[in-house]
Amino acid sequence: MADYQMTIHKQTIQVTSIEGGLQEGKSIIIVGRIVPDANRSHVILQCGSDSKADIALCINPRYEKGSARVMYNTYKNGAWGSERSTPESPIVKDKPFVIEILVTKEAYKISINGKHLMDYEHRIPVIQVNTISVDQNIKLEFTGYQNSLVVPYKTLINGGLQPGKKMVIYGVPNADSKRVEFNLRHRYGIAFHYLSLFDENVVVCNTYENGRWGTEKRSAAVPFIKGHLFQVKIICNREHYEVFVNGVKVHTYKHRFTKLDDVDVFEVHGQLQLIFVNI
């Protein structure tokens, strides 16, 4: 499973501690949306939760004078440093966004919605950074601190599936992607196989058991766009799975393998950047 050191939160405003400080090679993930009437908002990495604490990185989306941009800065020893900026912002107000901050030896590598925007060189040692804060203009869905995710990806589902269980996946298909595939597996096969084939523009759902595939359920129109962020929610109900993409229900698949608590592995395959998985 993803190595989380922070609790998932569903609050409008949040201050979260990172025990032991940041580590190279791990990523901070922030998922949320900016309220429609906001002019500015911020995500801050700081050295403690005190209001006077040093700020290693402030990511500051701004919506002023008819334009959108992102500013970056550091607050150290009671003063702000020189600002850096991204002239255009991929964050659209009232639309879901994902900020990924990869911690490297030299810099924070900042991506928004799967697009790399900035290498922000460290002005404060990363080991001193132990707090994340998000302001009230961001409706926060969750925050995570994790190892970078690699495809093929596999994680355990503790206790197996139960009716009402929800799986949330954020990612971006590559520009040359051929397929995006999700599997819910059990010891002897695949209870739910969800495969999007870009070249055919078709989605294939199926079940693999007793050493063979069942009858394919094929549907027109892949619900993903190459190069664009997606959010997938797979909900396990008593009779079927429901698949939502970017908040819209796109598929329903009736259970063929009904021992839900035996389904204990989730997999991702294909040509995509996998950002976040919440099981």
What is the structure about, briefly put?
The chain is mainly beta. 0% of the residues lie in helices and 54% in strands.
Structure, explained:
With 279 residues, the chain is mainly beta. 0% of the residues lie in helices and 54% in strands. It folds into two domains: 134 residues, Jelly Rolls, CATH 2.60.120; 126 residues, Jelly Rolls (Sandwich), CATH 2.60.120. Strands 1, 3, 4, 5, 6, 7 and 11 form a seven-stranded antiparallel β-sheet that branches. Strands 13, 15, 16, 17, 18, 19 and 23 form a seven-stranded antiparallel β-sheet that branches. Strands 10-9-8-2-12 form a five-stranded antiparallel β-sheet, with no helix packed on it.
Brief descriptors of the model:
Jelly Rolls; 2 domains; 7-stranded antiparallel beta sheet; elongated; 279 residues
